[in-house]
Amino acid sequence: YLSRDGAKVINVASSAAYFAALGLDTGNLNGExxxxxxxxxxxxxxxxxxxxxxxxxxxxxAGLDWLTTVSLHPGVVxxxxxxxxxxxxxxxxxxxxxxxxxxxxxxxATSLFTLTPEQGANNQVFLAAGADGKLVKxxxxxxxxxxxKLGFMKDEEKAASLWEISEEYAGLTFDxxxxxxxxxxxxxxxxxxxxxxxxLEDSIEEAAEAETSEDDSSEENASEATExxxxxxxxxx
Length: 237
Description:
By secondary structure, this protein is α/β, with parallel strands linked by helices. It has helices at residues 37-61, 83-86, 88-96, 102-111, 117-120, 122-128, 156-170, 185-236; strands at 7-12, 67-73, 140-142, 145-146. It has a 4-stranded mixed β-sheet with strand order 1-2-3-4, sandwiched between helices.
């Protein structure tokens, strides 16, 4: 359920999209053909931007003037992202080692201008709050300001293709025209309540199964202990 008072979809992309300046490779979205950490990461961030473009385009075509979607670069944030780029072992070695190396030097130098995760959330929080009432539909933001998208970041053909492939992967068709119909708040509330109850029931059932499994295990251990004691008594006899 999206509020008709002004729903927002905020997609966290990255300036790493520039690593994919040759354009989105829709035939290699899952690394089927090749995988190189930084370029693949750039492809995924470009996909975030193109998907945002297409979502806003479809929302506009469906007359959903209450829906705004934007993408953003959060800044260079001090996270563990590099562990997936250089590998877990190398990442841990760099963090724990006090010895000099090009990698450790680069890591320490980079940490001087990176943002904390809290600071890195500023951009998306600002946009989710409405950008002081000046949120631009379909825009790409950097440092809480609209930044011009280069040609490969505005490729409508690739954006449409990505949308279609996403629907194929998800096994559904996402038709935005249906979102413009009047929504019965009571129906929505009942659906949410039903979903919450379903989740709670599943949790209770899982907890009960886990408890039963622990009881069975305890009984088995007790039985084994009893058998061992009886065996020791027989040997003593």
